[in-house]
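Attaching the record inline, Q. Sequence:
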Amino acid sequence: MKRLIPHSLRLAWRNIWRNQRRSLLSLLVIAIAIFAITAIAGFGLSTYESLEQAAIRTNGELLLSRPGYLKEQEETPLADGLTDSQQLTAQLLSRDEVKQVEPKVLFSGLISNGQKSAIYLGQGVTPRLFDLQGPMLTVSQGHALLPSSSPRFNADEPQIMLATDLAQSLKLNIGDWVTLMSTTSSGALNALDVKVCGIFSTGVPELDKRQLFVSLDTAQSLLQSQRVSTLSVYLQRSQYTSAMSQWVNQQLSIAQQPLEVTPWYESAFFYQKVRSLYDRIFGVILAMVVFAALFNTLTMSVTERTTEIGTLAAMGAWPREIIGGFIREAGLLSLLGALLGGVATALLCLSLLQLNIQMPPPPGRTQGYPLTILFSIDVWLGSSLLVLLVCVFAAWLAARNGVNKPITEALTYV
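Structure, as predicted:
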C-alpha cells in the first residue's frame, strides 16, 4: 500500500499531524468554510426550487396569450383574448411533452351581497386547475369548484370561490348567494348571481382581499364571450420549456392566430428578484468572507513555521522542495476539510427533513414555510475546488516569503 502512495505525500501527511493543534485548527476552519458555503447555497437552492414550483403551479411552464396582452391593458374584457382555445389545446396536447393545458379568463368588477359591494379580481378556470395548485391555495371552508361530471354539480347554481379576506369583508359563508358585476366584451354592464361553494387562502394578503374563482363557463357567460385570456401549458418536465417555446413560436403562431409565449421564469418577477438578491449575497459576500478567513488561517499557519523553513534551508533543501511540501500539506488539509464539511452539511439536510422547522412568513405573505436545505454535489465540488485553490495559494505565498528570507533571519524568527 505504501508503494502506491508517493513518498512526498506520506511525508506531508506526517508533517500535518506533527503539530496537531495547528493542523486541527486549520482543518476546522476549512470544514466550517465548506459547511457554510454548501449549507447557505443549499438554502438558496431550496428557495429557488420553491419559488419555481410556485410560479409553475400558478401559470404553468408556458403562458400563451395574444401579443402585448401581459403588458397592455384591455379596453374591454377579452378584447385581446384568444379565439379557438379548444383547437389550440388539442394541438398542444398532441405533444408528448405537454401534461395539461388550462384556459383562464381574467376579469374584474364589483361583487355585492345586497348590502355591501367590493372590488374583485376574478379568474374563470376549470376545476382541474385546483389539482395543480397544491400548497399554493388552501381551501379553509367548503370545497373547490366542482366539475360538471360530479353528482353534486348543479348547472342552475353557478359556483364561486372567495378569498378569505374578501369573504370576511362581505360577511359571506358557504351556501350564500352573491352578485357579480362586470363589463362585457362589448362594453355593456352585466350581472350574474352565483353561490359560494368554497373559501380559500393564497397566503398573500393583497390577493386574499380581492381574488375569487368561478368556472370558465360562468366567466364567459358573464363577459358574453367565448374567448379566453391565456392558456397555461403544464409540461411533463420543466426542462422541456425552451424546446416547447420554440415549437409554439414556429408552428402554432404561424398556423393559427399570433401568439406570445412567455416562459415561467420571465413572468415570475418575485423569483427573479429573490434569485438576484441571493446570488449577490451568496456568490460575492460569502466568497469574500470565506476567502479572507481561509487565506489568513493558512498564511499564519505557514508563517509560524518560518524557523522550520530556515532549518530545512540550512540542511540543503531546495526552495522549490520546501514550497512544494507546504503546498502538499495545504492540499491534504483542504481535502480533509472538504470531506468533513460535506458530511456535516448532508447530516444537517437530513436532520431538517425530520425536525420540520417552520420559517416565519416572508414579506408580503401570511403563511410560513418549512426550513429545508438541498445538498448539491455540484456546489460541494465547486466549493471544495475553491477552498483548495485558496489554501494552496496561501501556503505558496507564505512559504515563498519564508524561503526568501536569509537563513540566519529565518532561524531566529519568532
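The radius of gyration is 32 Å. The chain is about 50% helix and 20% strand.

More tomorrow.
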